Amino acid sequence: MPTPSPTGPLVTRDSLTADLREAGVRPGETLLAHTSLSSLGWVCGGAVAVVLGILDALGPDGTLVVPTQTGDVSDPAHWGNPPVPREWWDTIRTSMPSYDPLVTPSRGVGVVPETVRTWPGARRSAHPQTSFAAIGPHAAEILDGHALDCRLGERSPLARMEGLHARVLLLGAGYDTCTSFHLAEYRVPSPLVELGRPGPDGWETVTEVSISSDRFDELGHDFERDRPVVRGKAGAADVRLFPVGDAVAYAERWLPLHRPREEEILHPPPLSTPFERGDPHS
In this predicted structure, what is the pLDDT of residue 191? Predict the structure, then answer.
């Protein structure tokens, strides 16, 4: 059987830069990017060309930030994609390497964030499950001090980006990947969850705000209907641009009305939401 021809359009570093500039990316700004490489078309140079294209659009004064999640650095009792046998749990807990920002690979977020993570000069935040990586002059300001008991709240890079008036870039990705909505979960009534993970002194458990991407696609639909979202195209991919602060503020009003959650301590569900396991198409 003959090999099928590549599916276009042909996307290059330069064409991506031009498309992003046309869509509204501004030199010198800070972008939190959620990307789908496969949505662009046939990319000459793959993820490396995508990172270069975004950096070219931002220029030397811009900063690129991506999520570099490590949801597998967690309690195997709550794994569901796939689960592991109960008799393995204790061995996994005692044997799992602790998170190392320089070594631990991201998982489930796709090849573009992993390319940013390993980029020369990139920095990465310290949270063992919900880290971010960044390239650019604001990287340290955004990433340093990511509290170990605050995945996506006031002491996380999300709040720093909100304060810096950063924007979200959805490059072929949907609103279900929009991490900025999670910051709102820390500002409205939300349940707490006990999370296990390996630490420097052995297995540890922390109590955190429970995060969930459930209904984020609906939230994004309403947000785009009611708030100004810059839209464009890059290759075959849809581009959306909007301020982190706008997304958070809208979600703070939307979530209590459309997805109220009780304030209590829960056991975490199996890792199956787009944020917790990552979007495999990123």
Answer: 94
Residue pair 217/173 in contact by the 8 Å Cβ criterion: no
Task: Tell me the C-alpha distance between 99 and 127, whole Å.
Answer: 8
Q: How far apart (Å, rounded) are the C-alpha atoms in residues 14 and 82?
A: 40
Residue 6 has a pLDDT of 75
Contact 187, 251 (CB under 8 A): no
Instruction: State mean pLDDT over 145-162.
Output: 97
148-184 core/surface letters (b: 16 or more CB in 10 A; e: else): bebbbbebbbbbbbbebebbbbbbbbbbbbbbbbbbb
Residue 119 DSSP class: S
The residue among 182, 184, 156 whose CA lies nearest residue 65 is: 156
User: Two tokens at 200?
Assistant: 């420097």
For residues 157 and 182, the answer to whether their CB atoms sit within 8 Å is no
> To the nearest whole number, what is the mean pLDDT of the chain?
92
pLDDT tens digit string along 59-83?
999 999 999 999 999 999 999 888 9
pTM higher than 0.85 for the full model? yes
Within 13 A of 243's CA, how many CA atoms are on the CB side?
Answer: 11
Is pLDDT at 273 greater than 50 in this prediction? Answer: no
Residue 206 CA to chain centroid, in angstroms? 21
Determine if the peptide bond prior to 83 is cis (ω within 30°).
no
Q: How far apart are CA 153 and CA 192, in angstroms?
A: 13
Give me Rg for the CA atoms of the chain. Answer: 19
